[in-house]
Specification:
mainly beta; SH3 type barrels; Fumarylacetoacetate hydrolase, domain 2; twelve-stranded mixed β-sheet; five-stranded mixed β-sheet; globular; isomerase activity; Fumarylacetoacetase-like_C; Fumarylacetoacetase_C_sf; metal-binding
Length: 267
């Protein structure tokens, strides 16, 4: 199942189930409207179906409390920035005000001169949990989406910590939807690619993670309670690089979809 949030005819964001023609749905790409919040409890179909081209997708989730990122979780990415691979997961937190959806602009702030993309798999938590053992990690996963951990690389270096470098508004694109049908094993071996203006920049697999999804959930939930809608960004493959105003960056995760965002200068 693909769960999206969308806006139609200038209304408020609502949840829907995405049905793609490639799945043999028997109709063009569309979204079936539902009532309620899938993260909060049961939902019902309203009977309304809209063409996907006629709605605007927004972030499929607005984390209720936090986005937790994992740094240097691909050895090749750590090496390309001349960093060691950490012995334990290297964590940082993005504010939920950094979250934007597909098609929304990544805003290039004047405080940086070196803005980078970092395409990655994002895990959406489905229930309140604390100290989750890795062999039960699948029980707390609601689904998976695509993330782009936008980073002001020069501020990351100069500040000696990452809150500002990764926390500006618009620095956490998520989307285009959440898939709930992937097993943990399937999600642990997916291709992750990033293009800028159509040129391939990153090409890796989630199987190359230093710490796998289950290990990350165990580690993160060991220090903080995870809430429904919280997001864990699992790290980025090698190939990160700069963005400029006017660029279009697209991150694709196999089996999930493509998240595309333009880059604009802050006015």
């Amino acid at each position: 199942m693909r769960i999206a949030r969308y806006v139609a005819d200038g209304g408020d964001p609502a949840f829907g189930i995405v049905e793609l023609a490639e799945d043999g749905a028997g109709h063009p790409d569309s979204i079936a409207a539902i009532t309620g919040d899938p993260l909060a409890g049961p939902v019902n179909y309203t009977g309304q179906r809209l063409l996907l081209d006629d709605v605007r997708l927004v972030s499929p989730v607005i984390p209720r409390s936090k986005v937790i990122g994992i740094g240097r979780n691909y050895a090749a990415h750590a090496a390309e920035l001349n960093n060691p691979v950490p012995d334990a997961p290297l964590l940082f937190i993005k504010p939920n005000t950094a979250v934007i959806g597909p098609g929304e602009p990544i805003v290039y702030p004047p405080e940086t001169e070196n803005l980078h993309f970092e395409g990655e798999l994002a895990v959406v938590i489905g229930r309140i949990c604390r100290r989750v053992p890795r062999d039960r990690a699948a029980e707390v996963i609601f689904g998976y989406t695509v993330g782009n951990d936008i980073t002001a690389r020069d501020l990351q270096t100069s500040d000696k910590q990452w809150a500002r470098a990764k926390g500006f508004d618009s620095f956490c694109p998520l989307g285009p939807w959440i898939v709930t049908h992937l097993s943990l094993d399937e999600a642990s071996d997916l291709q992750v690619t990033t293009t800028v203006n159509g040129e391939l920049k990153q090409d890796g697999r989630t199987s190359d993670m230093v710490q796998g999804i289950a290990e990350l959930i165990e580690y993160v939930s060991g220090f903080t309670t995870l809430l429904p809608g919280d997001v864990i960004l699992t790290g980025t493959p090698a190939g990160v690089g700069p963005l400029q105003p006017g660029d279009q960056v697209a991150v694709t995760v196999e089996g999930i979809g493509t998240l595309t965002n333009p880059v604009v200068a802050e006015n």
